Amino acid sequence: MKDQNQNSGDNSTNIQAGTVNIHGISAIEARQIALDVYNSNFMSLAGIAKDIARSRAEEITEEFINKLQQQNPIGLEQAKDPDFQHALFGVQKEYARCGDREIGELLIDILIDRSKHPTRDILQIVLNESLTVAPKLTTDQLAALSIIFLFRYTINNGINSLSTYYKYLDLHIKPFASSISNRQVSYQHLEYSGCGAISISSLELPQLIRNQYGGLFSKGLDETQFASKQFTIPRHSPIFSRCINNENNIQVNTINEEAIKTEADNHNIPESEIPKLIAMHNESMMNHEEIRDLTINGAPYMSNVFEIWSNSAMKNITLTSVGIAIGHANVKKDIGELTDLSIWIN
Q1: Strands of the chain, DSSP E
Q2: Spatial separation of the C-alpha atoms in residues 77 and 66, rounded to whole Å
Q3: Can you give the residue ranges of every domain in the chain?
Q4: How far apart are CA 208 and CA 141, in angstroms?
Q5: Cα–Cα dist 59/131, whole Å
Q6: pLDDT tens-digit series, residues 132-183
Q7: pTM of the predicted model over 0.70
Q8: d(Cα 266, Cα 48) in Å, to the nearest integer?
């Protein structure tokens, strides 16, 4: 579990367990309720096993209450809700059984997200199910969910250069790159557990990268090729720039097709020119092998990701709401912050 020590500035206040009272229930009361839930429901074990299980349940409860106070203190009120108690007991029970710190941290993050949804809606239902499914997954399956989620379901709008692209991969993909597996049974189990569906159709990783961050992989057009497009837009328009990979050439100054439409609107470019801009963007793009090589050049660990994606069901699987929720939580556990899950599940 992560260290709970806090540092504060001159004008800030640290919140530790037992110091706040939100809507009539304190952290101390919430912790006691949580432990009562465990003691009242967990199976009777004998001897050392009983002591180990209780110790683990207390550990995960303490970690949860501390983190809940930091991230969503109003969620302490959820300790009185029967459905939330049921979800909490599931976390205690699973951690008491296995003692796996990685799973424990993941379950805490999912449970904190669950505390933000006191009313019965689709997110609450998905998060409840995620708490049940996540302990059934192995490290390589969690890593696969994280990478599939990031490449298939997200785009980072802060990426505007190869350097920011590589930094993004270092932060988000590298932690999982060495853990993924090409074993078919790994992805069959993800399907069986309700995290995804394996289809006949496939989507190669270079194509996904091209769709999302294609502007980084432009070869551009030389002056003659550019002139042949017969744009009514001036050459000096901000919609054009020197090619990121060849300063002698010209490229569309955006990251992907959606960005072209947005920038065209921002610069009052005639709608009739947008298809020509998109065509230029796509025609000047590197091929899949070149995209792969340039990515690996700045992020060598991506060699394993490309290899396994191409030779496993990673390219065939689409995630369910539960798979997205677990992948989201697993990424958030490692990087600390991530856009709210409701962006993908609503």
Answers
A1: 21-22, 25-26, 196-198, 240-242, 250-252, 317-319
A2: 14
A3: 21-120, 139-211+289-343, 219-284
A4: 20
A5: 18
A6: 999 999 999 999 999 999 999 999 989 999 999 999 999 999 999 999 999 9
A7: yes
A8: 67
